[in-house]
Each structure stands twice: as C-alpha cells, then as structure tokens.
Amino acid sequence: MIQLYQFALSPFCRKVRLVLAEKKLDVQLVDEKYWEDNQDFKRRNPAGKVPVLRMDGLTLCESQAICEYIEETHPEPALIPNNPAARAEVRRIVSWFDDKFHHEVTSKLVYERVNKKLTRSGYPDGRNVKEGSKAIKFHLDYMGWLLDQRRWLAGSELTMADFAAAAHLSCLDYISDVDWDRNRQVREWYAKIKSRPAFRSILADQVSGFPPPRHYADLDF
Amino acid sequence: MIQLYQFALSPFCRKVRLVLAEKKLDVQLVDEKYWEDNQDFKRRNPAGKVPVLRMDGLTLCESQAICEYIEETHPEPALIPNNPAARAEVRRIVSWFDDKFHHEVTSKLVYERVNKKLTRSGYPDGRNVKEGSKAIKFHLDYMGWLLDQRRWLAGSELTMADFAAAAHLSCLDYISDVDWDRNRQVREWYAKIKSRPAFRSILADQVSGFPPPRHYADLDF
C-alpha cells in the first residue's frame, strides 16, 4: 500500500494526491504534524517537510521529485507530454505555482491564517495577508491570460501544471481567499478540474478548527 | 547560439551554466538586471526572474524546467541517471538546495550582502545574516553525512544534484561564507567539482563592486 505523510492544507501534498488519484493509485493518507519535533519523521525526511511518499519500498521526498517518479513509473494517463518543449512548459508552470505563487500568495494567506494557529506560532501578520490578497489578483489574471489561448494551463491537454495550480487554489478556496468572479476562464477551468474524480478526496478534507465554507466542495460554486 | 539571460551570483543561473558546460554546449551570457522594471525582459519571463534560456527557438524559464529540457535534448553525458528511484534521489537533492538551502542560507547571506546593495534595497539585515551563517553548518554536515556513504551527493556518479549544490556553494564562496574546514568530505567534493572544465566560467565571474576573495578561483583552496 502506498502511504503519503501529509498535511491536508499543504498544496505540495495536494499536488501529489491529485497525481496519484488521476493515475488511479490508491494511497493511505497519514496526517503528519511536521512542525513538531518528531524524530521518526525527521529520519524519513531530514528536511522536516511534507509530503513524504512510501511507495515501491522507497521513501520519496520533495513533491516534484515524487510527481516525476509517479509519472515515470505509471505513465498512463500522461500528465507530462512527450515533446521536450511541451514538457518544459508544464514544468515551468508547476514551478510558477510551487515557487512564485507559493511565495507570494499561499504562504501569505494559508500559512498566516491557518498554519500559524495550528502550530501555535503567533497571530496572522496583517501586512502579509494584505500582500497575499493583492498578489492573487495578478496570478488569477495571468492564469486567465494563459487560458485565453489554451484549453488547459500548459496547452491543449490536462497536465501536472493544472494539478499544481489547482492544489494551491483549492487550499486558498478552503479559507475563502479566491475571488472566482475575477476571471470567467479561471472559474470554468477550476469547475472542470474540481469535477474530476481525482479531486474528490481533496474536497472531503477537513482541518480541525477550520471548517470549510459551503462553496468549497460545491461543484456548482 | 544559445543565450542565457542571467545574473552572475544567481545559484539558479549557475546551475544552468554548469549543466550546459558539462554537455559542452556553448552559451552566450547576457547579464540581466532583472530587478529593474524592464518590459522586454518581463515579456520573456512574466515571472521577472533569471535564468531565462533562449535555445532551439524556445524561451525557457525556471531553472529546473530548463535543466530537464537540456538533459532530455542532450542526454550525454547523463546528469540524471536512468533508474526512476535514482532519478527521484537526484531531484530530491536538487530541490533540497534550490528550495531549503536557498531559503535558509543563500537568500540570507548572498541576497543580504550582495543583492540588496546592487538593487539599492537597503542594508543587510543582521538577523538574517546570523541565521544564514548558523544554518549553513547544518547543511554542510548533511552533505558530509551523504558523502560519507556516496562518492557524489546523489550516488556513485556525478549528477545534476552536485551541480545544484555547487551552484549555491560557489555563490557563498564568492563572498567567503563557506567554512571549508568544517567537513573534509565536503571540501574534497568541492575540490573535485571545482576542477572540472565546466566550472571555469563560474570561477572567472566578477560582480562589479564585489571582487571575489583570492581563494575563490584557486583549485587548491
């Protein structure tokens, strides 16, 4: 059985879960309080971060290394296309979300509003929240610009880039931080991806002390 | 001709340069003041970051997407092995340096001491410098632990993981922030990688206003 050590509102864990689910690989989720000083967990990943995936007798760390491993060992359905230029575009957009979007938006909203309380490391920093709320508009506009020209974020097919983006946006949607009225294309894109069977487990997530808003799991939001 | 829009002390640009050089691909370096509001550059990469690579008629962004593209289109010599588990380990260590090491060390030392001055965005924050100087010790120890068991960072062969690590450490060495006496294995590893022809252009780098220390380019440091 594949096991994923995870935190429900980690976009990196959600990306791995979406990739596993799209490939119809069953996984046992193990909630990991990675912020506590747990030596067992540190042995699994000295970086002290989730996700950590146990699969094929291996302990895999770092979300993109994990997703590429899953893609290489379970190539169907393909979430990274064959052509090198198209692969580079998928990976560019994955990095856009996991690096730039994470730094400018997810860390400033989800981490301030949720992780800080869970880990008892203080109150939300209003300046960060303000910066994150401003930055997400630029990112939604950029997504809209991409979706003006393409069916999915990296081209005509659904790829890992869409799951990376949806992983971040779904965490923000859990705390009602996405203005779905800002861009029609982005809303339609999210409605499509949200209605995939792979998304079901994400929509059923519950973080103790932070009940999701009603629209979070609603396919007709 | 391949063109790399870059900043000499960016570890991400250095990783790309090392991968290109190891594969004997000539590149024209274009210094890019990415912090200035340059619309031409923003069109090439809306993320506003270096590296940006022009190659095969494509404009490629995000260092790991670029390196994977080079590896896929120029597979020899291989910098990512064939076996999926070994590939995952290479990518784990690349992410370790490009994410964790960058966040805990490079951004706290190189960015505070160099980038802030170059971009006229204030003085080094002493708390960050102190945190970075402390964190690098843990990372050097972790590298030493890996090199206790392996010839190179991700296994018995030189891989992209070594270049990712060397890209960060060489930036820190440029500002004399690496204690090479801390771990003998790490010093020997760096001596080996530093003496490769692929490293020559990195050792010749000069950043205006920040002359490198004498030991920086010395193969017998």
Automatic annotation (TrEMBL), chains A, B:
Segments forming domain GST N-terminal: 1-78
Taxonomic placement: Bacteria, Pseudomonadati, Pseudomonadota, Alphaproteobacteria, Rhodobacterales
CDD domains, per database record: GST_C_family (cd00299), GST_N_family (cd00570)
Any one of the GO BP annotations: glutathione metabolic process
Gene Ontology MF annotations: glutathione transferase activity
Complex formation: Homodimer.
Protein name (record): Glutathione S-transferase
Top-level taxon in the UniProt lineage: Bacteria
PROSITE patterns in the cross-refs: GST_CTER (PS50405), GST_NTER (PS50404)
All residue ranges annotated as the GST C-terminal domain in the record: 83-219
